[in-house]
Amino acid sequence: MSKFLSLVLRHQPEIITLNLDENGWADVEELQEKCANNNILFTLEELDEMVETNDKKRFIFNEDKTKIRANQGHSIDIDLALKSQQPPEFLYHGTAQTNVESILEKGIEKRNRQHVHLSSKKDTAEKVGMRHGKPVLLTIMTGKMHEDGILFYLSENNVWLTEFVHPQYIQY
């Protein structure tokens, strides 16, 4: 269910004809209805449990739980209304060994997402890297990036976001 919600709330709401507002919020009742039309059934209690127990805290409700959205990772154009923040001196990016040469040459690109994702925790970044092969942990000099005028945002689930990481800020 979590993977399906990630798909429709981050990438392809059109597969169930779900409407997202400009900030990525979906009406919970409409989400339930559109999912039910596609034989995907869940109660509000099940949805609430998934939001609360998701290990990556991928989703968030509004205050009265009438709307839901993904915290980050969108490939569709939405405005998360994040405010820029000063990052810690260093953040981490996990990737697969096969990507390192390209990253050190071209930098870390957001590709089909709205932002590059960085972590304040080494173990979290390593887990991300494991999804794609032998993991490599890259240290990003985010304090220097910020000094140089590059903006950073912190998502609701504590993932640091930026537009691009130039190779000069990457330590391997």
Work out the helicity level: 25-40%
Structural class: alpha+beta
User: How much of the polypeptide forms β-strand, as a percent range?
Assistant: 15-25%
Compute the separation of the termini in Å: 36 Å
- Tell me about the largest β-sheet: 3 strands, antiparallel
CATH topology of the largest domain: ADP-ribosylation fold
**At CATH's second level, what is the architecture of the largest domain?**
Alpha-Beta Barrel
Element pattern in H and E:
HEHHEEEHEEHEHEEEE
The general outline is elongated
Low-confidence residue ranges: none
Oligomer: single chain
Q: Please count the beta strands (DSSP E, at least 2 residues each).
A: 11
Q: Which strand order does the major sheet show?
A: 1-3-2
Tally of DSSP helical segments: 6
Q: Indicate the mean pLDDT.
A: 94
Write down the domain tally. 2
CATH domain class of the largest domain: Alpha Beta
As a whole number of angstroms, the C-alpha radius of gyration is 17 Å
